[in-house]
């Protein structure tokens, strides 16, 4: 029986383990990773300081998920080389069970260990291949590696600092989710099974200390110009395209990722605009311009990222030829891919392949939920049924599907209280792209000024309605019970 407490081999401070499933703990005083053995505590070496990732939950927080009590015991910080992300080790049912909790790309993921099940070796996995785990079939959406960069609190395993972790994420119908954790890919593995959930299912009491500096937490500071940009989606964004200077930066590390012009053009839907679609309130949080080569001609389009706390992210896409469309993510486990690559069936409908391409991000303004890079490319395939499109996007070991359907500009204009005869209704204007950017410098100054004023106005509104920890007004008071998901 491994010891339950002792002195840190690194500094002598007392170390105590809270739950039986914890194998290691990061000493809060000296940062040593301390592993408990039968004969005592062993020092595995110091971890790096934890990066100030935007975090919605913290070690020490307690809450309920679908009514089930949990406590956040520890956190592991990993990195693909593009900036860190967090996985939270949680105790369920007052220590009777444990699992992992993570937030990524607008969704929450919870998993628990599923021991005694055989899985294919890492090198046999392919994107969109199916893996049977117990009664259910799961489909691979991501195959990646990540480096353990830091950790805090207790951990359910021995995670060596700077070790490379191999893993795959899979989806199943009805929000099923699984992670195949191959550890350091030396033959052993662990399987974790769970589900994806929306924020309103979770209730959190903020008890743990926040790693983010409490001062001005309703702002994201641009590391290039020092400008404070109001947070529009709380602590959920990973990258910022600064509206003042155009610099793209990583929010956690404050590293500059790319330099671009401050404002290519005024977005048709200004960043920070609030709108309501089918009764759901959204806020426009980012504007992207993307493009692709079609038969030798470069074709570009615009994408607006809109976010709602209850349901996550949606897109409004402005195509210079076909107009506006509304796009939403699709669970790839719900697709019938038997006739790929010529046809995909979904929801009783058949979508025929239209084109394959390589799409590039040319410009980004506002806050985005992934490690966005200007110039990043994804391999795209579009499948059509009438005017509706199923799109497949693949990049660096990850595949995502989305569905888009046309929406008329007047509908968008009405939702966001924008003029119906405004620039959003003019499709021709979007085709000219950078070729038309011959406007005078006075015009640019005015555009930037307008953007600045909009952001200032949003900032003023937000500071009135919450305690400064989230622009979404999500968190009310420190320490009290809060709905992470609002109502
Ligand atoms: Zn210590
Ligand atoms: Zn800036």
Short description:
The chain has 487 residues and is mostly beta strands. 7% of the residues lie in helices and 46% in strands.
What is the average of the pLDDT values?
84
- Structural classification: mainly beta
The helix content is under 10%
Shape: globular
Number of DSSP helices?
3
Largest sheet: 8 strands, antiparallel, barrel
Question: Could you name the ranges where pLDDT drops below 50 across 5 or more consecutive residues?
Answer: 429-449, 455-487
Strand content: over 45%
Architecture overview:
The chain is mainly β and 487 residues long. The protein folds into 3 domains: 1-41, no CATH class; 47-205, no CATH class; 219-465, no CATH class. The chain has 3 helices and 32 strands. The strands form 4 sheets. Strands 7-8-9-10-15-14-13-12 form an 8-stranded antiparallel barrel. An 8-stranded antiparallel beta barrel has the order 23-24-25-26-31-30-29-28. A hairpin with a 2-residue loop joins β22 and β23 (280-294). The chain is globular. The site of one zinc ion has 8 residues, from loops.
